[in-house]
Q: What sequence folds into this?
């Protein structure tokens, strides 16, 4: 219980009874609150006086603020003053509108701005954004016309060029060497004014022509294999190197090459040793094909029933890199042990030896190769 001898404790009273409390719990009552406590104690016996005291206290402590003068209160409610410059500008605009309405004649028609007038409008600044955009559009249209004139994929493009820019088409056709047919502008679209003359001659004289000679078939099969990763122009420029290295593509002679001869060919002619070994291996496999079918010519042309395929492509972008026929030929050659005879390589080989006529129908060589296939001979 509570001990009266505790030094730190003080004596306090609640409702007139002494209560022992520690000194730390005692809080000094504010001066303003002491009169209120006394008034509360007296309120039990004197309610009327209590009301008077509370009213007096509220009057002294919570007095309302004095009201502001009427002119000050009205000024605080008004919006901020408008600057003089803004007021003058608004007045000037209103006066101009009133003057235009007063001077307008009844029934007068306002001027109409047409789209042609807007298009003909030129900005005052030469380097404005609109001028730059028009210049960019004009350049894009000029480049598009040049691309059409450069490639000329279809006859419809040629007609459009004749109406839009016949001179550009004529200039593009003059830079290509003349073909045997004299119809330069209708060549296959991959023959461009910038094509190498050797490649153009190959297109006009050999590509797509039916071949029935075993040595030439072996040569084109070899060139199609080494062409992977390169282009036909670079291969045609080195064609004489391959002919000299492989004895004019004589199958019997190439099949007898020894390992020492292959290493010597690789060093002397700058050929990859793996490529040389693959070509010699193909020569040995062709000898086996000859024993089974009589010749490489009979073996190859049997896949197309001795009649060239004629897909009649109108656009060069439609010419595939491989077909189901090239895949079937490739699988059979791989089964027989030949190398460098993937589906893409075999399709290129088929195009080169005339197994398929992939000239565009607009190209004069398409008709020439078809006529040669019907006659069963070569085209000179």
A:
């Amino acid at each position: 219980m509570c001990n009266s001898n505790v030094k730190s404790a003080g004596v306090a009273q609640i409702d007139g009874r002494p209560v022992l409390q520690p000194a730390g719990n005692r809080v000094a009552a504010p001066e303003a609150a002491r009169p209120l406590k006394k008034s509360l104690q007296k309120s039990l016996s004197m309610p009327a006086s209590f009301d008077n005291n509370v009213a007096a206290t509220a009057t002294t402590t919570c007095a309302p603020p004095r009201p502001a003068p009427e002119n000050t209160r009205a000024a605080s409610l008004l919006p901020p003053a408008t600057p003089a410059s803004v007021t003058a500008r608004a007045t000037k605009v209103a006066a101009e509108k009133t003057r235009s309405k007063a001077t307008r004649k009844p029934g007068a028609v306002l001027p109409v701005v047409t789209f042609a007038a807007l298009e003909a409008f030129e900005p005052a600044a030469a380097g404005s954004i609109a001028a730059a955009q028009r210049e960019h559009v004009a350049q894009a249209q000029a480049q598009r016309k040049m691309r059409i004139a450069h490639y000329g994929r279809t006859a419809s493009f040629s007609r459009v060029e004749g109406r839009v820019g016949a001179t550009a088409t004529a200039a593009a056709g003059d830079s290509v060497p003349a073909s045997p047919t004299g119809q330069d502008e209708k060549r296959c679209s991959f023959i461009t004014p910038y094509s190498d003359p050797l490649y153009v001659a190959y297109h006009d004289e050999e590509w797509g022509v039916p071949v029935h000679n075993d040595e030439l078939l072996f040569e084109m099969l070899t060139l199609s294999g080494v062409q992977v990763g390169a282009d036909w122009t670079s291969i045609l420029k080195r064609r004489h190197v391959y002919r000299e290295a492989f004895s004019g593509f004589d199958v019997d002679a190439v099949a007898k090459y020894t390992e020492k001869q292959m290493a010597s060919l690789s060093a002397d002619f700058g050929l990859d040793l793996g490529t040389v070994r693959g070509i010699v291996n193909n020569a040995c496999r062709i000898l086996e094909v000859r024993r089974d079918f009589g010749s490489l010519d009979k073996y190859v042309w049997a896949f197309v029933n001795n009649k060239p395929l004629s897909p009649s492509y109108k656009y060069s972008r439609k010419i595939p890199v491989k077909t189901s026929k090239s895949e079937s030929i490739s699988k059979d050659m791989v089964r027989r042990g030949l190398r460098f005879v993937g589906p893409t390589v075999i399709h290129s080989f088929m195009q080169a030896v005339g197994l398929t006529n992939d000239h565009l129908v607009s190209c004069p060589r398409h008709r020439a190769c078809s006529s040669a296939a019907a006659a069963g001979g070569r085209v000179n």
